[in-house]
Design goal:
Elements (H helix, E strand, L loop, with lengths): L1 H11 L5 E3 L3 E6 L2 E6 L6 E11 L5 H14 L3 E6 L3 E9 L7 H29 L1
């Protein structure tokens, strides 16, 4: 039920979800790639925004600090490092037996976009302060 509601909400919002075999559905928004992870037997909606920032040896410490600061600013978004060099963020919303409405999906996408922008602002201010 959740999967069908999410896919319907995405269509109502004008997105064309593309199935990713065994992983979920991808959408593109404002130059970003988002994934609705279709987890079986769940009562939650989970969206992931992969690769919002590339980690190098030079920026690794700043990234760690930015991840901590972002977590303090935007409570519903989890950020993590995938592999050794890619920052990803995700948003999980428990819906239980409630219907997933387009407004919820729009909110999740907006929060993820804001989180990505905030992460970049934090990183940029860190490097600007070093000059």
């Amino acid at each position: 039920m959740v999967k069908e509601d999410v896919l319907n909400a995405l269509n109502v919002l004008g997105f064309i979800p593309i199935e990713m075999e065994g992983f979920g559905f991808q959408i593109h928004y404002e130059g970003r790639f988002l994934i609705y992870t279709d987890v079986e037997d769940t009562e939650s909606v989970n969206f992931v925004m992969p690769n919002i920032f590339e980690i190098t040896d030079e920026n690794r410490e700043a990234v760690y600090k930015a991840l901590i600061e972002l977590g303090g600013k935007i409570k519903y978004v989890q950020s993590y490092i995938v592999g050794d060099n890619s920052v990803w963020i995700n948003y999980v919303h428990y819906v239980g037996e409630n219907e997933v409405k387009p407004e919820l999906i729009e909110h999740i996408i907006t929060v993820l976009m804001c989180a990505a922008i905030n992460f970049h602002k934090i990183i940029n201010s860190t490097f600007a302060g070093e000059s």
